[in-house]
Amino acid sequence: MSTLYLVATPIGNLKDITSRALQILRTVSLIAAEDTRQTRKLLAHYGISTRLTSYFEYNKLTKVETILAELQIGDVALVSDAGTPGLNDPGYELVRAVLKAGHAISPIPGACAPIAALVASGLPTDTFLYLGYLPRKAGERHHRLAEIADFPHTLVLLEAPHRLLACLEDIHQVLGDREIAVARELTKIHEEIFRGTVMAACHHFAAKAPRGEFTLVVAGYEAQPEVISLEKVKKLVEALLDSGAPVTQIASQAASQTGWPRREVYTIVTQIQQARKGK
Asked: Which residues are 78's β-sheet partners?
């Protein structure tokens, strides 16, 4: 059986391609490309003359059989117009068909705009949720955002320049004025990464017509800790004193349960003790 290679290509800077990716593109029998015009530029730049065919959203059903037939002869490479194939394109459907036919799948890692924006955002990267493109209609966009409003994960999404401001306004309305990083034209000459609040991003990009490809990285939801009042702290301390526990233990336990600084709780404990002695 043959192999379908998922080859990551540059998202802007043509130098951002691995030597292994170039070797694969030179040696496969066919390259299936999301945008053949864009891929031809890349192949011409590196002097690669491998046969090319299109595979995109509107011909994916008719092209699957063609690509499967080609895999009976030799290896095939799948590329998107930029970045890693299979993300926000019909690549995953081809992968499923190829696996079902018994062929191998081999990823050739490289450029990926969502990951590039995430690691440069300054926001937590240990857990994140990739949303792709939000719905175009405002109502559907609001609904999608509301579904993940309480998620603690950093959110990563893509947006077109003509919908950027509407998207930012909806994020602000549904998720609040969170921290955000808006990456534009990554790896290109006019690369820009805006970092700040969502409202600040709205003002920044409203001042100029947004251009280029955008990746948004939004801080996850942070639950606000319950504010424990002084009266509640005092009641807890009273109960712990009645139990006969040592002062230091009471201060530590009350601080742990209320979130108050231990030093402040210790002061409250001693004040209550003194008041009791004076009675």
From this structure: 6, 32
